[in-house]
Structures are given as C-alpha cells and as structure tokens.
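Might you be able to check the backbone structure tokens below? Thank you kindly.
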Amino acid sequence: MCRSTGAARLAAATAVSGLVTAGVLSGAGTAVADDNPQTQGGATATISGLKTYGEAVIHADGGDQRVSAGLFEMSVDGGGTLQTYCVDLHNPTQRDARYQETPWSGTSLGANKDAGKIRWILQNSYPQVNDLAALARQAGAGTLTEQDAAAGTQVAIWRYSDGAKVDAVDPQAEKLADYLTKSARNVGEPQASLTLDPPAVSGRPGDLLGPVTVHTNAGAVTVTPPADAATSGVRIIDSTGKVLTSAQDGSRLYFDIPEAAADGTAQLTLQASTTVPVGRAFASDSRSQTQILAGSSESTVSATATATWAAKGAIPAVSARKNCAKGGVDVIAANKGDKPFTFELMGAEHTIPAGASRTVTVPVQEDQAYDFTITGPNGLSHRFTGVLDCKTQGTITTETTQVHNQPSPATVGGAAVTDTTDLAATGGSAITPLIAGLAIGLVVIGGTVLVLLRKREQPDA
C-alpha cells in the first residue's frame, strides 16, 4: 500500500536539519563525478500507479485498517510495461518514482526466508494465470474478477513479505489468498534480465581488459562501443580478437586498448529487448515502496561496463552494490597497477595493493540516503547514490480506519508509519533534487549520513 507525502513536511525537516557541505575532494585533475547513480543493469521504469485492485484489511494492535491491494503498472525506459505487486507494505509509493531492477540481496527479500514462496505465488496466480475460472476452481473461490484475483494475490504476498496479519475484504479474494498462502513453496531467485560481471575493469594499454561476462535472459544483446572508439582505437572484442556488435548470455567481452593509447577511461553499453523474469525485484532510490515483478511485456533492458587504463601507477576499477545482509553499500575496488591504490572512507584509510582487490562496506542506516564519490588517476570518477531500504516497517497507526475507494497513483493503499525516522515521512522523493549536482558533498535531510570518499593519488614511479 502507498501514501504520498507533503512538501511542507520536507521543508520543515530541511530547516531543522540544515545543509551540510564538504570541502573539495583530492583527485585526478579535472575529473568530474558522474551524476548518474550506478546500477547493476536490467530494466529501469517509472511507476504509473495501482491499476487493478480490490480491498484488504490489515489487523494491528491499534485496530483494523482498510487499504487498497492489487497490481501496479510501470512504464519502462525505452519501451515496455511492467506489472508489479508491492513487498513493502507500510512504506509509501512516491509519485512518478523511478525504479531499477535489483537483486534480492539489495532489498528486504534478501534476508526473507520466504522470498521464494512469494515468487511461487507470482508464478501461480494472476496475471501469470489469466484463466480466472481455472484459478477460482483451484482456490475453491467460486467466481473471481480481475480485481478479486489481484487483491487476493497481493494479500498472500504481504503475508510473506511483511509477516502481516491481513485479509482480503471480498470473500472470494480471501479464499484465493488462503489457497496461495498454504500452497506456496520456495523457488529460487530469477535470473537478471541483463547484467554485467564485473561492471568495471582496469589494466594497461596494449592489454585486453576483462573479461566482462554477460548475464541475460534475452536471445541477443546489442553491444555499443565507447562513444569515441573511432578516434581512440578502443575496440570491444571476444577472446579470439573478433570485434563484437552483439552478445548473448555467457558472452565474455574485452576492452582492446591500443598500446599507444594515453591513460584514460571508456564505457561500453549493452541493450536488449526481452521480457523481464517474474519475481525480479524493483527498488527506487527516492525511498518509494519496493516492488516485485508479476508480469512484463517485451521491454528494453540495458547495462554498462567501464574500463580504466594507465601505463604505470595505480590503475583502479571501482564499482558498488547494496548489501542488505551487512546493512550498507559494498565498494569493490580492484587495482591492476604497479603502485598501491589508497583511499579514505568514513574516516578510515584503505589501501589496495598492486594486483589485488578488496571489498569495503560503507555502513548506512536503514532508510537513509547515501551519496559519495570515489576519484582516481586518469579521470577515474564514480559517484554512488541511493537509499538503503532493506527492511519492511513493523507496525502501522490505525487510530481511524481509512477507506480508499478511488485511489490515485500516489496514494493507493496508504497507511501511517510509527517510525518517525522514515525518510518518506519528510518527502523521500524530494531528496533527489536537493542532492543532485553536489559531486563534492551531501545534503543531509533528517538523519541522513554524510558519506565522503577521498582518493589520494600515488606518485608515479
């Protein structure tokens, strides 16, 4: 369920917490941080709202609350439509929030022993099963409408995603929910629609940098070389030296760097059209409610990989990913150079020896935004932003019963949250404009932590 938040509350919170900025980072010359948050590839979409729904009742200590329950719809960047259910019952859905396909480990599903049961429900209910008469017979539910089927499915999911005491209002929808809850079995996490491993590589001019392995459910993927490939001479090839314009699942790609190339960086992009696998999680960096995929049209998916090269010195490759098991963001740094790569993170100094790699976890409080940039030699600069949303909220306030007969995309299924540290209560989706463009600092709203990462260049040999 979802609720919107007011700009006035955001303004008040900002006035109280103030604005914190940081000094200039030491780094590589004129390198500028990329303002786009790094993703792990796949589909990116904008939520349109709740489209097919019924009603449910949440039972809590403070009383019962009636909410809307059902299927959301998302519009995919580049083309396509997704249908999703939510797996974060008490958090709000921000208007027009943008979502990124995300591994379960980057959401509350990663620590949920019943996550596989949620995927089973998705595979065995509406809309994957669109024969509602057959679904009703299996559930002993008489006759099911699309609204009943969506509500019953969402209720069953909430019981496993949030451990909620929740029932569908319609008796037939409730029978479906009970059937799905009792029948669910654990199945594994689905394959990503498109991702690259690793997303960053490094090395010396004249070498093959990689491999970067493609993981996808698409039949074919288009490979777009670096934008300046014609002038820089950088090629994307396979292990035999063949220049690649397309790839498939399991393909291993290499950046072929000319021996005479000046120190620098390059990026390749992969894109495909495919149906996103049912059960993939979708998370938003605007603190909008986590979703799980129930259905997909043919949709555009993409992923990028970056290469850094230099003739001598430290040659780092840096990427990041959310790690809900450790309550933070993993910064993965590899150094293919002949000098150590040293950086400072959260007041602690970390050194990656030549030829080694290391993962450093940046601790981030639940529901807090993070924004940090790591810079290095030869123009290396990566900015990592997002919100850590690894847990579902525990309780709701039910002083009065709210009925959402005609919910809007921003308010469907809304409920108040007792946790006053929830960033959504101060307008989570409005945080992004405040922090955008601050490549050297972080706007702190509410309890948001300032995370600052500084690279200290090593002298050349």
